[in-house]
Design goal:
By secondary structure, the protein is of the alpha/beta class. It has one domain: Glycosidases (TIM Barrel), CATH 3.20.20.80. 34% of the residues lie in helices and 12% in strands. It has 11 helices and 9 strands. Strand 6, helix 8 and strand 7 form a beta-alpha-beta unit. Helix 5 runs parallel beside helix 7. It is globular, with a radius of gyration of 19 Å.
């Protein structure tokens, strides 16, 4: 139960699931145009200027509209103003169950995306395999095939084989620099402990599969920071012990963070000075912000107020702290506002982009642009 008097925020996981469905709709179509070097437009990065930086910057492949051109444009934006592109996707179980074949939709999406990645060769590749259902706070398998017993879930032998086969497929086709096997996995830990235990054993197997296919790929799950700290749903003390299930087979600590979706912070100024610094107290290796965002306008029906000034303050603070604390990467989930996120849980993300859906800049964009121009050391 939620604590009395505390509003329950819209779940981050459900919002991301809506976005993934919209993205798949766009990406499975063939884009028009493109350059001689590939299906995307030619991009020219600005001349480097300013002090060097060690933190890499990235955007996800989320487009502002549900069109193939917008899907292709998301890769171009990442190439022009970032160092990394994040592709996050639910598992197409039916394609990889024993005895099944890869569908045309999956094949076409893979072909388009890998062509874009080859065209924008300067981008590092971050692929997140997302097997849990965001609409129910990640408490079960997403898109479970009818042939799989829901009570078994991650313990079902055929589902496990499919996950391992998909892991091998992703590594062999995408050659990711970073690979997340499980997204915001602590949410499963909190809500379905037996499923979490089954997933951990599956993760260990998948880790070996990924390393065999791509020895240099950095493999890890991601954790949802606000939920880990007990700020979403049932309020509880931080559960950092969930990291222990993966130690020794986790190449980096990766978290998603959306503080504006909790009731604890009404502005970026309310976020304590140790909020992100604390990550280093629980992990001595590489740390990355797998995805983040902050609204630039008020959220309908929400307790928090978003403004462009507050979004700019959050971005400036996060990038400065990531650099100061030696984080390797910050991924802002949406470069442009997702114009299709107008109803339901997705609406709280409708203003999370650093630019409006028409491409015009918000106040935070110059902060990102200045950091992107700084030479990477």
């Amino acid at each position: 139960m939620d604590a009395p008097g505390r509003a329950r925020p819209a779940p981050v996981a459900a919002i991301l699931a809506v976005f993934l469905l919209a993205w798949a709709f766009a990406a499975c179509s063939d884009g028009e145009g493109g350059s001689a070097g590939g299906p995307g437009p030619t991009v020219n990065r600005a001349t480097p200027a300013g002090e060097s930086r060690s933190v890499r910057l990235g955007f996800s492949s989320l487009p502002p509209q549900q069109t193939s051109d917008a899907a292709v444009g998301a890769f171009a934006t990442a190439a022009q103003y970032g160092d990394v592109v994040l592709i996050q996707r639910n598992v197409p179980w039916e394609d990889f169950l024993p005895g099944h074949g890869v569908s045309r939709a999956t094949t076409d999406t893979t072909r388009l995306e890998t062509q874009l990645l080859d065209q924008y060769s300067g981008l590092q590749r971050f692929y997140a395999i997302d097997p849990t259902d965001g609409f129910v706070l990640r408490s079960r398998v997403a898109n479970l095939p009818a042939s799989i017993d829901p009570q078994q879930g991650f313990a079902a032998p055929d589902l496990r084989e499919a996950f391992l086969a998909y892991t091998a497929y992703v590594v062999k086709n995408y050659h990711p620099d970073y690979l997340a096997l499980g997204v915001e996995i602590n949410m499963l830990y909190e809500r379905a402990p037996r499923q979490f235990e089954a997933f951990v054993t599956l993760y260990n197997q998948a880790y070996d599969v990924a390393k065999a296919a791509g020895p240099r790929t950095k493999v890890f799950p991601t954790f949802q920071l606000e939920d880990l700290e007990g700020r979403i749903g049932a309020i509880h003390p931080p559960h950092w012990e969930v990291l222990d299930s993966f130690r020794g087979r986790m190449d980096a600590l990766a978290v998603s963070t959306y503080p504006f979706l909790t009731v604890d912070f009404r502005s970026a100024a309310d976020i304590g000075p140790d909020y992100y610094r604390e990550l280093a107290a629980h992990w001595s290796g590489e740390i990355l912000i797998a995805d983040t965002g902050y609204a630039s306008a008020p959220i309908e029906g929400g307790v928090n107020v978003g403004t462009e000034e507050d979004q700019r303050a959050y971005l400036a603070r996060l990038l400065a702290e990531a650099e100061a604390n030696g984080f390797s990467l910050v991924v802002w989930f949406a470069a442009l506002d997702p114009a299709f996120a107008r109803e339901g849980g997705a609406s709280v993300f409708r203003d999370v982009g650093l630019r409006k859906s028409d491409g015009s800049n918000k106040l935070a964009w110059p902060v990102w642009e200045e950091w992107a121009r700084r030479p990477l050391r």
